[in-house]
Amino acid sequence: MSKYSIAKQCIADALATASAEKIKHNDALEALIITAIAEMTKTAGATRTAEIIDYELRNISGVLDKDFLRAR
């Protein structure tokens, strides 16, 4: 199982739980992003975390095929 498969499963589980708890999906995803950023900062450091966030924000339009790039 790849790291992206694990992440996608975590999101699916979080959204299923959010639905059961009557929490909006965007609110659950916001909490997930905030929590993930905090945890990544602890493990990878602030600089690496900021680099990843910056990269994702620059490519937020979805022009790049990220699944293809990440699979390499």
Fraction of residues in helix: over 70%
N to C succession of SSEs: HHHH
**Structural class from helices and strands?**
mainly alpha
Q: How many separate helices?
A: 4
Low-confidence stretches: none
Radius of gyration: 14 Å
Query: Approximately what portion of the residues adopt beta-strand conformation?
Result: under 5%
Inertia-based shape: globular
Mean pLDDT: 90
**Cα separation of the termini:** 15 Å
In this structure, how is the largest beta sheet organized? none
How many domains make up the 3D coordinates?
1
According to DSSP, the number of beta strands is: 0
Report on this model:
The chain is mainly α and 72 residues long. The protein is 79% helix and 0% strand. It is built from 4 helices and no strands. The longest helix has 20 residues, at 25-44. The radius of gyration is 14 Å and the shape is globular. 0% of the residues are buried.
Topology (SSEs and partners):
Layout: H1 3-20, H2 25-44, H3 46-58, H4 66-71
Helix pairs in contact: 1-2, 2-3
For the structure shown, list the relevant keywords.
single chain; 72 residues; mainly alpha; 4 helices
Write a brief structural summary.
The protein is mostly helical and about 70 residues long. The protein has helices at about 5-20, 25-45, 45-60, 65-70.
